[in-house]
Write a structure and sequence with these properties.
heterodimer, A: alpha+beta, 3-stranded antiparallel sheet, 55% helix, B: alpha+beta, 5 domains, 6-stranded mixed beta barrel, 6-stranded mixed barrel, globular
Chain lengths: 109, 940
């Protein structure tokens, strides 16, 4: 399944909210949580990370990866946490509304 | 916002580092991905290849990452600047004219702002000026003071809103005792005129009298030696003095050996203990002083305003400045101080106010409260600031007009860029970058012009401008801001216009399509016309303003002051500083008068308590015989010596001038040891006086004034530099003559009823009528005074014409500068009009050619252009005239004998513009007439 437009940012925020991750880790985490149902364009991941960092929602620092290599780790900032909450609420409301519309049945005359 | 800016900044500054890290990060991703594949059994080479494919375009991802950091904006901005510079280089004519125009506009603004900045926005030269407050009293009525002295530290209130900064000594003690509010309190007064000897020739110096905690409260240090301390401000303290840095340099040659030297001030020996730091020119901006002494030294110095009891509650003379404690708010301190002040002034044995007067203290920040000299210069500078603001708007409109014509010429370029998919916003941004580049270049040149302009102004016309004029960061910031704004202002309209295009005709070829222009071109032309009308209108406003100010100056100059100002040498002398008493003063003056009159080239000599037209004024309340009982009139007073009326050539219309006997009689009346019976019956000894014609017209119309009596009553007030003589109370005068009217304080002030009394003592100003150039006599005059008594310095040695010029400095400066900027405005607007017409003719070359080919008369073509020029100018003149009518009322307080709506000035400017409009259209009209039909038709 392809990603709905504009949802990548939210998913990244969610992924790093569970603990600091490097870029590749973000990718794996999202695939893992979604049970491999979501396909992410790897090329669009990094611009999104850079954009989120630019806005101050995530912060980065260099660390060591599982196999002892230098990697850049991203973690959620306080502002990012607020943003994630707001986004999640918005998304849930939207999903409810849309589900409500789709479930409506034609009224019987 | 901040995070984004910081991230953007780190991205720019650490650009190469960011690139490196981006590489590392992406490579890590691909390799980690590949390793996972290897773990699933894919060969390593193959795994790397597949990881690369899965990832997609690395370069694109990188570019998108950079974009996420806001980097391309800067890249493209730099690119725009480079492109703009290239385009500007390609049309050097346009670029030169635009940059020069903008440089003149921006430079004029920077120059005047430099003066405004020096006057208004400088921090006081003390530590933490924000904590300093100055005490200002307010009340509904004037207090019942016995004496008040103020020293141009702050503006005085008037009778409607009484207020001021001069306070009595007990108020200072009171504020100082409330140590909970302030970390320091100081009081000061002056500067006092002091006689300085013991350092070369005797001279006068200005001594600021300050409380012992002055320097510690202000946080001002010594450059050399020490400053004054509380220990110096006791009655038993040894007399010490601290010099200002400038005075130390000028009078003592900046020698460090001055510390410990003894000088004599008003015959009291003082030891020099220090020199203040150079930055501390004065606490009150613009105030001039040479040295500082302690308040406790005042009684020994014999200064006239400190003769009365300086500690009394009804003698208001001290300015009080306090430093707020860090945790005390101004409001808190003000409430407490005000309450204490009320108790002080309301509950004394002799209360100074009624409770209903509601006396209070306001704490003003010293920064804005100590504004003594500002009032004098503020208004002219604001007028000039408005004038140069208008000049800049004209420059903007001018360059906008030029850019508009250029935008039409660049239609093809724009069309190509739009056709190739360039976004309009992007192109507008690029054009704006171009205009801002242009205005920045203009600004840079403008700063240079302003620097030279300010140097010239302070050297020539503003020599007496008392503020420190120095370029600083604020001025640079101002210029950059103005340049940016200018660039956007003149660039926006042409940029928007230039990018709204119909692509097909624009691409097809000539920018100047056939005369049946499409409506877009026509609208562009309307905009261009509007801009020129605007320029004419603004220049009209500036010119009318300048015209009114010039007429004011000529009116003031052409005033007949009532006496002959030519070949008159003046100098001041104050023997009271050298402890002369009245009778010694009288014999000194007689001796000086004789010896000076004997000088070759001197026709006659006299003296008076003040010189005319030098800003000094002495008024007194008198009772005039025949007026209602106990009624008083305020009249101007001048004490004059023998021969005053002959020397100044003031006609005596009735009666006779003073004779020697009159001075003897006045001297006897003034002497306190005169027999008490005689003063009890004052009618016995009336002092002979002369009055002016205005006095007779007001108080004795159609009557013979000779022999009538005037009684001096009520309080007398002296203003000016305190050389006014004759302070005894309750005198009776008898009119012995009537003199012609003369202007007294300055040329502007109307003639008031005036009484001339004989000089009986005090300081005086001598007047020498010369047959030749009066300045040549100065050395001889100095020698005579020095030979008579070497302890007597003379001051203000000037000719009467110099004094008149000085008194007109403000009017002269502002009318000259306003005229200069007015001509600049006219010139710029003229260029604008010329540009519009030239463009119009070029645009219509084909149309004109065809009309000529079809047999139109060439003079018709010529006239058409002339008509258009006149029409545009006249619309501008009408619009500007209306604007001027509305605005000039704001100038009325600066004008003299000319109405803000002066028809003559308006007419002259309108005629001037008609002539300029004819000149501006001459070349374009000639070119239109000489259009050759064939050439015009081949044009495409």
């Amino acid at each position: 399944m392809e990603l709905l437009q504009g949802t990548l940012d939210m998913l990244i925020l969610k992924a790093v909210s569970l603990g600091p991750l490097h870029g590749y880790g973000v990718l794996l985490r999202i695939e893992q949580i979604s049970k491999d149902q979501l396909e992410i364009q790897q090329g669009s991941l990094y611009p999104a990370l850079y954009r989120l960092e630019h806005r101050g929602w995530i912060a980065s620092e260099w660390g060591e990866s599982e196999n002892k290599r230098k990697a850049k780790y991203y973690r959620l900032t306080a502002a990012g946490k607020r943003k994630l909450q707001a986004e999640a609420e918005r998304w849930n409301r939207m999903a409810d509304v849309i589900a409500g519309i789709l479930q409506s049945t034609p009224e019987k005359a | 916002m901040w995070t984004r800016f910081r991230s953007w900044l780190t991205a720019i500054l650490g650009r190469s580092r960011m690139e490196r890290e981006m590489d590392v990060e992406l490579r890590f991703h691909i390799e980690a991905f590949a390793e996972d594949l290897v773990r699933r059994g894919v060969a390593r080479e193959e795994a790397l290849r597949r990881a690369g494919i899965e990832f997609g375009g690395i370069e694109r991802a990188k570019e998108e990452c950079r974009e996420a950091r806001g980097l391309p904006f800067l890249d493209s901005a730099l690119q725009d600047v480079r492109y703009g510079l290239r385009m500007l280089r390609k049309s050097p004519g346009f670029t030169t004219v635009a940059i020069l125009t903008l440089a003149l506009g921006i430079g004029a603004n920077t120059a005047i702002f430099t003066l405004v900045d020096a006057m208004m926005f400088r921090w006081l030269p003390v530590r933490d000026p924000g904590q300093l407050v100055v005490l200002r009293w307010t009340a509904h009525e004037q207090p019942r003071r016995n004496r008040t002295s103020s020293f141009s530290d702050c503006e005085r209130g008037d009778d409607k809103n009484p207020s001021g900064c001069s306070l009595p000594y007990p108020a200072f003690e009171l504020v100082r005792s409330k140590s909970g509010l302030f970390s320091g309190v100081t009081a000061f007064a002056g500067p006092a005129q002091l006689l300085l000897s013991g350092n070369g020739a005797v001279r006068t110096a200005r001594g600021e009298v300050v409380s012992g905690d002055y320097f510690s409260t202000l946080g001002v240090n010594a450059a050399l030696g020490r400053t004054l301390s509380a220990a110096d401000d006791t009655t038993s303290a040894a007399p010490v003095v601290v010099l200002t840095y400038a005075f130390w340099k000028s009078a003592f040659g900046g020698e460090s050996s001055v510390i410990g030297r003894v000088i004599s001030l008003n015959s009291v020996p003082f030891t020099i203990v220090g020199v203040t730091e150079p930055a501390f020119t004065s606490l009150t901006p613009g105030k001039k002083q040479d040295m500082f002494l302690s308040l406790s030294m005042l009684p020994r110095l014999g200064i006239d305003w400190a003769n009365d009891d300086t500690r009394a509650l009804d003698n208001w003379w001290l300015t009080i400045v306090a430093r707020l404690k860090p945790d005390v708010s101004t409001g808190q301190a003000q409430a407490a101080t005000s309450l204490n002040f009320r108790n002080l002034v309301l509950h004394d044995e002799k209360p100074l106010f009624k409770v209903s007067d509601d006396p209070a203290i306001v704490l003003l920040s010293a920064q804005s409260g100590l504004d003594g000299q500002r009032g004098f210069f503020a208004k002219p500078l604001y007028v000039l600031m408005s004038v140069v603001g208008l000049v800049l708007l004209i420059a903007c409109a001018n360059v906008a007009g030029l850019s508009l014509a250029r935008a039409t010429a660049r239609q093809k370029e724009m069309a190509v860029r739009l056709a190739l998919g360039g976004r309009r916003r992007r192109i507008v941004r690029q054009l704006l970058t171009e205009s801002v580049t242009l205005s920045m270049a203009g600004g840079a040149l403008g700063v240079l012009l302003a620097f030279l302009g300010v140097r010239a102004m302070t050297a020539i016309v503003l020599r007496s401008f008392p503020f420190v004029v120095e370029p600083d960061g604020r001025i640079l910031a101002f210029t950059i801001f103005v340049s940016l704004l200018t660039g956007i202002l003149f660039g926006l309209a042409p940029a928007l216009r230039g990018t709204r295009l119909d692509l097909t005709p624009a691409l097809k070829g000539s920018a100047f399509t056939f005369a049946r222009d499409d409506s877009r071109n026509r609208r562009g032309l309307h905009l261009g016309k509007g801009l020129v009308v605007l320029q004419v209108a603004f220049s009209m406003i500036v010119l009318v303003g300048a015209g009114l100010l010039v007429r004011t100056l000529t009116n003031l100059r052409s005033i007949n002051p009532g006496f002959d100002t030519q070949n008159l040498l003046l100098f001041g002398i104050d023997p009271t500083l050298a402890k002369y008493d009245d009778s010694r003063i009288r014999s000194l003056y007689r001796e000086l008068q004789e010896r000076l009159a004997a000088l070759p080239g001197v026709t006659s000599v006299s003296y008076s308590s003040d010189t005319l037209l030098s800003g000094g004024l002495w008024t007194s309340d008198v009772h005039v015989e025949g007026r209602a009982e106990k009624s008083t009139q305020e009249v101007d007073m001048l004490a004059v010596g023998p021969g005053f009326f002959q020397t100044l050539r003031i006609p005596v219309l009735e009666g006779h001038r003073f004779v020697a006997a009159d001075f003897e009689q006045a001297g006897r009346a003034a002497a306190p040891e005169e027999s008490p019976q005689l003063t009890a019956t004052p009618a016995v000894l009336p002092i002979p006086v002369l009055v002016n014609r205005q006095f007779v017209q007001e108080y004795f119309p159609e009557q013979n004034p000779l022999g009538r009596r005037i009684t001096q009553g009520g309080s007398s007030a002296a203003s000016g530099e305190g050389l006014a003589g004759g302070k005894a109370k309750q005198k009776v005068w008898e009119i012995i003559g009537v003199a012609g009217d003369v202007k007294y304080e300055n040329l502007r002030r109307e003639i008031h009823p005036m009484v001339y009394v004989p000089v009986t003592g005090g300081g005086a100003h001598f007047e020498l009528r010369t047959a030749t150039n009066p300045t040549a006599l100065v050395p001889a005059v100095r020698k005579i005074v020095n030979d008579t008594d070497s302890n007597l310095p003379i001051s203000q040695v000037k000719t009467q014409s110099q004094r008149v010029d000085e008194s007109l400095i403000q009017e002269r400066v502002i009318s000259h500068l306003a005229s200069f900027f007015g001509l600049l405005a006219l010139f710029l607007a003229c260029i604008g009009l010329y540009g519009l017409l030239a463009y119009e003719v070029t645009r219509r070359t084909r149309e004109i050619g065809i009309r000529i080919a079809l047999g139109a008369d060439k003079t018709d073509v010529f006239q058409q252009i002339v008509r258009q020029s006149l029409k545009t100018a006249l619309i501008g003149v009408s619009v500007g005239g209306l604007g001027a009518l509305a605005l000039m009322r704001l100038l009325s307080s600066m004008l003299y004998r000319v109405q803000p709506a002066d028809p003559f000035t308006f007419a002259v400017v309108a005629v001037l513009w008609t002539i300029v409009a004819l000149l501006a259209c001459y070349i374009p009209a000639r070119r239109a007439m000489s259009v050759h039909p064939i050439a015009a038709l081949r044009y495409e």
